[in-house]
Amino acid sequence: xxxxxxxxxxxxxxxxxxxxxxxxxxxxxxxxxxxxxxxxxxxxxxxxxxxxxxxxxxxxxxxxxxxxxxxxxxxxxxxxxxxxxxxxxxxxxxxxxxxxxxxxxxxxxxxxxxxxxxxxxxxxxxxxxxxxxxxxxxxxxxxxxxxxxxxxxxxxxxxxxxxxxxxxxxxxxxxxxxxxxxxxxxxxxxxxxxxxxxxxxxxxxxxxxxxxxxxxxxxxxxxxxxxxxxxxxxxxxxxxxxxxxxxxxxxxxxxxxxxxxxxxxxxxxxxxxxxxxxxxxx
Length: 282
Hints:
Order of helices and strands: EHEHEEHEHEEHEHHHHH
CATH topology of the largest domain: Rossmann fold
Number of domains: 2
CATH superfamily of the largest domain: NAD(P)-binding Rossmann-like Domain
Shape: globular
Number of strands: 8
Radius of gyration: 21 Å
CATH architecture of the largest domain: 3-Layer(aba) Sandwich
Helix content: 40-55%
CATH class of the largest domain: Alpha Beta
């Protein structure tokens, strides 16, 4: 069977980039997966994990690719896209896996007319608090959602080509503008991370030995990389702030019911939350 993308370059072969590479190779969607890393140690980890077929520290290796996926932190993505655009063959499809989209896409669009590559923003909504290629999972995207974020200037074919990557990896693909993506993810991912971190910060260390499933499930994501998450939260600051204010209003209603001893009101609020959570599924 002919590979859909003969040569793929993945810039940043950590947990997400490594999972993309393992899925491409496992599904025989690519003949070569070149992992571009920042260090020899991360290159070696990607090779050991079977996430890539070859590794390099040289971004210029992307010149050989038919598809380039940037799976770096959101703060690094705009600069990497500019550098890659000077290296790739004209017409090469480029996408990313960043958790924010508005600023990344806007940076690309400012120079769209002079671009060599065909960039369309993406975000696979899958992941883990674990880091590095050792945590890569070929099935990470199966049955999950991926968002592709074209803008009015994006040729429909480019958006469809980016969507085809995530569909080939097993995801259900949605298309929406970058700002809509960031508004939604602020509520479903970014603000929840802040809440998880706040719960940990507010829990007295002396009580940690008494934590069980509820506390640990609720705070699992607080174990994510602080540097990476600071960049995400600051890049999506206004939507995150709006989401946090909504959370504060909901919490205040529950607190008011507790302070008033209003069991009926408290049960109503908790039941609404339970019903909404049950509707999401596992």
